[in-house]
């Protein structure tokens, strides 16, 4: 068998070994047995919150352990297919097995990277905000395209997306929107997406078909649970009630129950308009504000906090983290890591993993100064 194929298999095995060490394999297997036993206890289901925690931990362990076992078995299967194909002179079988090994290599590398998501809130759900920059309809349309891109990425990874706030543009697109993305490590993966995103294209809103440059920003912050205590003085906040101003439809309500909370000392503003109940919108807005304040506290502990604060000062030139060029050529390039692709449509359809993986790896190595 060719040396390069054995080298790929060895790389995958090394990634799996690192994953086993990170999981503390023997203890993880014992813990899964314990959780399975607890899940079978009828009394557990009388304590809803505890049951949810047990099932969440059980699911995460099952997925991690199951994936390691599956990849380990598939390595041997694909090596066997390569041997069989070479013995029979069937290059099609060999090529298919090589492609499968390459896919396993990528999956194992991603899992290895994800195992390093050990930040205080990396495993949490997250809120994602999009804000259109200067430029009117063109920038607002770009904001909507970005939100669609992240929604597709989330759905492709089995995450749940819930609209919380949406402010539509005058002619098209969005001035701003906030969604909650729920799933294991949602914040850990998405935190490196915070920053300004630049689009270059022929504007569909320009009758002269001229090329335009537009900017919109993405900010990501973690959903926090009851174990994290964030104290807020209500006297420091201004609460406004308003009518939902977005496009309506499936995402937002059309009553006067939307809530906006402004935290005066920090200048942080959050809005929620997903529910017809003002009470539930208010509760969600308070949760969002606590999450924003918590994220601000996390940033203070990181060396990257000042760089991000600087990046937030202006949605425009000099502050972007990624450039999306659709004219006169096709290219998406991350300006922090240098990762780029000519498949711009694939990226806009949610193929963001290479960018996230590179940014996360650089961040973990101390090489990225402006995310979270």
Describe the structure.
It is a single chain. The protein has 372 residues and is an alpha+beta fold. The chain has two domains: 3-114, Release factor (Methane Monooxygenase Hydroxylase, Chain G, domain 1); 126-364, Alpha-Beta Plaits (2-Layer Sandwich), CATH 3.30.70. The chain is 47% helix and 20% strand. It has helices at residues 3-23, 25-39, 48-88, 91-114, 137-156, 186-190, 278-300, 305-311, 344-348, 353-364, and strands at 126-132, 160-168, 174-182, 195-202, 211-222, 237-242, 258-263, 268-272, 320-325, 331-334, 340-341. It has an eight-stranded mixed β-sheet with strand order 2-3-1-5-4-9-10-11. β2 (160-168) and β3 form a beta hairpin. The radius of gyration is 23 Å and the shape is globular. It starts with a helix and ends in an 8-residue tail after the last helix. The model is unreliable at 246-250 and 367-372 (pLDDT under 50).
Estimated helix fraction: 40-55%
* Most strands sheet: 8 strands, mixed
Class by alpha and beta content: alpha+beta
Strand content: 15-25%
CATH architecture of the largest domain: 2-Layer Sandwich
- Flag low-confidence runs: 246-250, 367-372
Describe the global form.
globular
Work out the number of β strands: 11
Termini separation: 45 Å
Assign the CATH class of the largest domain.
Alpha Beta
CATH level-3 fold name of the largest domain: Alpha-Beta Plaits
| Average predicted confidence as pLDDT | 83
> How would you describe the oligomerization state of the chains in this entry?
single chain
Major β-sheet strand ordering: 2-3-1-5-4-9-10-11
């Amino acid at each position: 068998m060719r040396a390069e194929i054995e080298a790929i298999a060895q790389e995958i095995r090394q990634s799996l070994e690192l994953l086993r060490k990170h999981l503390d394999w023997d203890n993880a297997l014992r813990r899964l047995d314990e959780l399975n036993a607890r899940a079978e206890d009828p009394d557990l289901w009388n304590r809803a919150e505890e049951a949810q925690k047990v099932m969440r931990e059980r699911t995460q362990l099952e997925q991690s352990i199951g994936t390691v076992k599956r990849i380990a078995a598939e390595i041997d299967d694909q090596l066997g297919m390569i041997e069989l194909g070479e013995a029979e002179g069937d290059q099609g079988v060999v090529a298919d097995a090589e492609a499968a090994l390459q896919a396993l290599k990528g999956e194992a590398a991603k899992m290895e990277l994800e195992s390093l998501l050990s930040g205080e809130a990396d495993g949490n759900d997250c809120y994602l905000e999009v804000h259109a920059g200067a430029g009117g309809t063109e920038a607002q349309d770009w904001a909507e395209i970005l939100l669609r891109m992240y929604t597709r990425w989330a759905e492709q990874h089995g995450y749940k997306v819930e609209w919380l706030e949406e402010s539509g543009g005058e002619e098209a697109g969005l001035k701003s929107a906030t969604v909650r993305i729920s799933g294991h490590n949602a914040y850990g993966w998405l935190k490196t997406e915070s920053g300004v995103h630049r689009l270059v294209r022929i504007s569909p809103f320009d009758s002269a078909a001229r090329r335009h440059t537009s900017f919109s920003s993405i900010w990501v912050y973690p959903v926090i649970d009851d174990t994290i205590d964030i104290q807020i003085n209500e006297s420091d906040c201004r609460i406004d009630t308003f009518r939902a101003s977005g496009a309506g439809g499936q995402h937002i309500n059309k009553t006067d129950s939307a809530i906006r909370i402004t935290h005066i000392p920090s200048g942080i503003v959050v809005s929620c308009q997903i529910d017809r109940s003002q009470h539930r919108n208010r509760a969600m807005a308070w949760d969002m504000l606590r999450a924003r304040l918590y994220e601000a506290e996390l940033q203070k502990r990181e060396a990257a906090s000042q760089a991000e604060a600087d990046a937030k000062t202006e949605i425009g030139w000099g502050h972007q983290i990624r450039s999306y060029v659709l004219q006169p050529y096709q290219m998406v390039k991350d300006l922090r890591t240098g990762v780029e692709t000519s498949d711009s449509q694939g990226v806009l359809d949610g193929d963001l993993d290479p960018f996230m993986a590179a940014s996360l790896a650089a961040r973990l190595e101390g090489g990225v100064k402006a995310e979270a």
